[in-house]
Amino acid sequence: MTSELVIRDLHVTVADGEKEVLKGVNLTIRQGEIHALMGPNGSGKSTLSNAIMGHPHYAVTQGDILLDGESILDMEPNVRARKGLFLAFQYPVAVPGVSMANFLRTAVSNIRGFTDQPAPSDKKQGLIGSNLMPMKDFRKEFLGKMDEFNVDRSFAKRYLNEGFSGGEKKRVEILQMAMLQPKFAIMDETDSGLDIDALRVVSDGVNKLAGPDLGILLITHYQRILNYVKPDFVHVFFNGRIVMSGGPEIAYELEEKGYSWVTDQFGELELVAA
User: Fold this and answer.
1) Does 90 lie in the same domain as 12?
2) pTM of the complete model
3) Which domain holds residue 246?
């Protein structure tokens, strides 16, 4: 059965409750579909991505987010991840002291339910083992995915994102997606800060992952990534809501005319993003 992520009349404020950022967002994404969400800076696109994943800085005041018919509003971000959601950040943070391999082994073990099982033990030696994914299995899969998605194997021992270039950070997030195997990936301006070569590599990774088991929401304000990742649907986001939806032709129109023609139709942009 194909999974659905449904955003229904979603209204969101920042934590203090004084500033409404999202003003009634409606969107349905199914596995196997690629949706591009385009809009100028400050229109609320990143707020939408964070609200989907349950960022505590934002409060849903109206509407709902449903995954396979079940509301996720009361779920913690880690529970939403286990249900099949993944967020690729616009600016991935560095985590000093935590190697990429250890980070991903822990994340994969949590997502796949290894951490729900009691830790194995060796009664003869009196040792308690780990309830993480077996290292042999993880290492084989991990190294295979690193090769497939053009991530140098030396990165396995490096601290997560520390000293990484923008392109390397985004490439590592694609690797995380490949390992975590979500139902839906929300990619918040994955093309931000990438040169043309890095953009091609990252886009190639997205295209490898795209398929019947993954729905993608690709958030951007440039058309250029859509030259490499072909969306099924394009939505224009403006002043905290979707104001227009259609096919890829909308992206080319935005590239040609800019966002001024959206402003002409829907009024001046209010900087709603916190």
Assistant:
1) yes
2) 0.90
3) 4-94+182-266
